[in-house]
Amino acid sequence: MKYPLSKSDIDIKSKSGKSIDQITIDEVVNGRVTGEDIKISKETLRLQGEIARQEGRTQLGENFERASELVDIPDEELLIIYNMLRPNRSTKEELLNKAKEIRDKYNAIACSNLIMDAVNVYSKRGILK
Protein backbone atom coordinates (compact mmCIF):
# COMPACT_ATOMS: atom_id res chain seq x y z
CA MET A 1 0.00 0.00 0.00
CA LYS A 2 1.39 3.39 -0.93
CA TYR A 3 0.34 6.90 -1.77
CA PRO A 4 -1.66 7.98 -3.70
CA LEU A 5 -4.29 5.44 -2.78
CA SER A 6 -6.16 6.07 -6.04
CA LYS A 7 -3.23 4.48 -7.89
CA SER A 8 -3.24 1.36 -5.72
CA ASP A 9 -5.28 -1.82 -6.01
CA ILE A 10 -7.45 -0.76 -3.07
CA ASP A 11 -11.13 -0.13 -3.81
CA ILE A 12 -11.46 3.38 -2.42
CA LYS A 13 -14.97 4.45 -1.50
CA SER A 14 -16.40 7.81 -0.53
CA LYS A 15 -18.29 8.41 2.71
CA SER A 16 -21.54 7.52 0.89
CA GLY A 17 -20.03 4.27 -0.40
CA LYS A 18 -19.45 5.29 -4.03
CA SER A 19 -16.33 3.89 -5.63
CA ILE A 20 -13.80 6.46 -6.81
CA ASP A 21 -14.43 5.20 -10.36
CA GLN A 22 -18.12 6.15 -10.03
CA ILE A 23 -17.31 9.78 -9.28
CA THR A 24 -16.88 11.45 -12.66
CA ILE A 25 -17.80 14.79 -14.19
CA ASP A 26 -20.47 13.07 -16.29
CA GLU A 27 -22.04 11.56 -13.17
CA VAL A 28 -22.01 14.99 -11.48
CA VAL A 29 -23.61 16.66 -14.51
CA ASN A 30 -26.26 13.93 -14.67
CA GLY A 31 -27.08 14.44 -10.98
CA ARG A 32 -25.92 11.00 -9.89
CA VAL A 33 -23.10 12.36 -7.72
CA THR A 34 -23.88 14.74 -4.88
CA GLY A 35 -21.82 16.58 -2.29
CA GLU A 36 -22.19 13.62 0.06
CA ASP A 37 -20.63 11.36 -2.56
CA ILE A 38 -17.39 13.31 -2.66
CA LYS A 39 -16.76 13.34 1.09
CA ILE A 40 -13.87 11.18 2.19
CA SER A 41 -14.58 8.02 4.15
CA LYS A 42 -13.13 7.21 7.53
CA GLU A 43 -11.61 4.06 6.01
CA THR A 44 -9.69 6.08 3.42
CA LEU A 45 -8.39 8.43 6.11
CA ARG A 46 -7.27 5.46 8.20
CA LEU A 47 -5.47 3.97 5.21
CA GLN A 48 -3.67 7.26 4.64
CA GLY A 49 -2.71 7.24 8.32
CA GLU A 50 -1.28 3.74 7.98
CA ILE A 51 0.81 4.83 5.00
CA ALA A 52 2.09 7.85 6.92
CA ARG A 53 3.09 5.68 9.90
CA GLN A 54 4.81 3.15 7.60
CA GLU A 55 6.87 6.03 6.23
CA GLY A 56 7.84 7.08 9.75
CA ARG A 57 5.50 10.07 9.82
CA THR A 58 3.85 9.23 13.13
CA GLN A 59 2.33 12.64 13.80
CA LEU A 60 0.75 12.77 10.34
CA GLY A 61 -0.62 9.28 10.94
CA GLU A 62 -2.19 10.46 14.19
CA ASN A 63 -3.71 13.45 12.38
CA PHE A 64 -5.34 11.12 9.83
CA GLU A 65 -6.64 8.93 12.67
CA ARG A 66 -8.30 11.94 14.34
CA ALA A 67 -9.65 13.06 10.97
CA SER A 68 -11.24 9.63 10.48
CA GLU A 69 -13.13 10.12 13.74
CA LEU A 70 -14.36 13.55 12.64
CA VAL A 71 -16.17 12.07 9.62
CA ASP A 72 -19.07 10.98 11.85
CA ILE A 73 -19.37 14.25 13.77
CA PRO A 74 -21.89 16.70 12.26
CA ASP A 75 -20.44 19.93 10.83
CA GLU A 76 -22.37 22.05 13.35
CA GLU A 77 -20.78 20.12 16.21
CA LEU A 78 -17.32 20.52 14.67
CA LEU A 79 -17.80 24.29 14.60
CA ILE A 80 -18.81 24.26 18.25
CA ILE A 81 -15.69 22.28 19.16
CA TYR A 82 -13.48 24.55 17.05
CA ASN A 83 -14.80 27.64 18.83
CA MET A 84 -14.51 26.01 22.24
CA LEU A 85 -10.83 25.29 21.60
CA ARG A 86 -9.99 28.90 20.86
CA PRO A 87 -8.05 30.55 23.71
CA ASN A 88 -10.15 32.01 26.56
CA ARG A 89 -13.43 30.65 25.11
CA SER A 90 -14.09 27.72 27.43
CA THR A 91 -13.61 26.61 30.99
CA LYS A 92 -11.73 23.47 31.92
CA GLU A 93 -15.03 21.82 32.85
CA GLU A 94 -16.67 22.73 29.52
CA LEU A 95 -13.80 21.25 27.55
CA LEU A 96 -13.66 18.09 29.64
CA ASN A 97 -17.42 17.66 29.21
CA LYS A 98 -17.09 18.09 25.43
CA ALA A 99 -14.24 15.55 25.35
CA LYS A 100 -16.44 13.04 27.20
CA GLU A 101 -19.41 13.81 24.96
CA ILE A 102 -17.60 13.16 21.68
CA ARG A 103 -15.96 10.05 23.09
CA ASP A 104 -19.30 8.63 24.25
CA LYS A 105 -21.57 9.85 21.43
CA TYR A 106 -19.28 9.47 18.40
CA ASN A 107 -16.58 7.08 19.68
CA ALA A 108 -14.05 9.82 18.87
CA ILE A 109 -11.39 8.62 21.30
CA ALA A 110 -8.34 10.25 19.70
CA CYS A 111 -10.18 13.57 19.32
CA SER A 112 -11.39 13.36 22.91
CA ASN A 113 -7.80 12.79 24.04
CA LEU A 114 -6.66 15.79 22.00
CA ILE A 115 -9.19 18.02 23.77
CA MET A 116 -8.01 16.72 27.16
CA ASP A 117 -4.40 17.41 26.15
CA ALA A 118 -5.48 20.94 25.15
CA VAL A 119 -6.99 21.41 28.62
CA ASN A 120 -3.61 20.65 30.21
CA VAL A 121 -1.75 23.01 27.88
CA TYR A 122 -4.37 25.76 28.22
CA SER A 123 -4.21 25.43 32.02
CA LYS A 124 -0.42 25.88 32.01
CA ARG A 125 -0.63 28.85 29.63
CA GLY A 126 -3.51 30.50 31.47
CA ILE A 127 -5.81 30.60 28.44
CA LEU A 128 -8.90 28.96 29.90
CA LYS A 129 -11.97 31.10 30.54
Automatic annotation (TrEMBL):
Pfam families: Dehydratase_SU. One of its GO terms (molecular function) is propanediol dehydratase activity. The keyword Lyase applies. The keyword NADP does not apply. Transmembrane segments: none annotated. Its EC number is 4.2.1.28. InterPro entries: Ppandiol/glycerol_DeHydtase_su, Prodiol/glycerol_DeHase__sf_su. Keywords: Lyase. This is Coenzyme B12-dependent glycerol dehydrogenase small subunit. It comes from Clostridium disporicum. The lineage of its organism: Bacteria, Bacillati, Bacillota, Clostridia, Eubacteriales.
